[in-house]
Amino acid sequence: FFPAIENINLWSSTPNLNMNLYATKKTAAEGMLDIALFLANITHMKTVIEQGAGYRYYAAVLTLISFSLALQIVAGVLIIIIARRDLNEEANQKQLDSLNNKATLAIFLIFITNIFISVLGMERTGLFARMHF
Question: Membrane-spanning regions, if any (predicted)?
Answer without folding.
Answer: 55-83, 103-122
